Request: fold
Amino acid sequence: MTLYFDDDSHIPVPVTHTEPVASLLRSLALERVDENTYRGESVVRVTPRVYGGQVQAQAVMAADDHVRRTMGLGENDRLAHSITGAFLRPGDINIPIDFQVMDLHDGHSFSTRTVIARQKDEIIFEARVSLQELQPGPSIKEEAPKDVPAPEEVPSSVDFFASLHNKIGNLQNACNGIDLRHVNGDVYVHPAKSREPRQYVWMRTRSRMPEGSSRTLQRAMLAYAADQIMLEPVMRGVGVSWMMPGVALATLDHAIWWHRNFDISDWILADMYSPSAQNGRGLGLAKFYQDGRLIATMAQEGMVRRNTERTIEQ
Reply:
């Protein structure tokens, strides 16, 4: 297996030469600065701000590597099963991000780490990551929604951005390693036709993950992929789109629970809805399925503001 950095200076990540997935995976091969500090670069995006899903994915990689190295564990001996993160300040894609990992607890079955991401001595993100060794236990398996159109029947975000023929479309097409397919229609340019705060989205990487991709890398990739759609059920419900003038959108916090292993090279279905939006904030909830099995659950609250809104709820 070929790695981006074939020495002990970085977290090992297998190589692919197919863009844009290659650049994304390279950003997850964090530099090991010292035993508690990692450094990462940012992938290019439409805006000069660091993409939150990238920072969250890098935090997962840092926590996993720290647990394995301090406990002397193998690659899949303890896997991240949850992360709860808070986005505190916007980051600058031109400045490296330092991730400080703090050891909170190592038990017989679970390990917990706090990960703090900094730029220029300012904290931009903080998370708690919990990892667990594989253990037997009782099982509940919720089935995937029925009668959802297959991904081959749904328009691709890759094709959509390629058709724009402008700077945003060109950057998105060149830099986003995830193919998103909105069953209900996207909200990139125009608000949804219906105000129902629910959507189904198919997703997978635009090219296959390289051989030797760890389960942790797969989980980090899902964190990266999902952050770009978690607020969309809120946006549908309040009638806004990503490119609508006078709309401000930002992630405040994001929690992920990984339940089962998966391969993000293959189609994953996100079943998403919003139960509430108020006072410039909205909550998005999502369940992710692959091959009919529930693989992850997520919750994200974000800022969703319109400059014409004047209603305050008590």
Notes: The chain is about 20% helix and 35% strand. Residues 79 and 216 are 6 Å apart (CA to CA). The mean pLDDT is 94. The first strand starts at residue 31 and ends at 34.
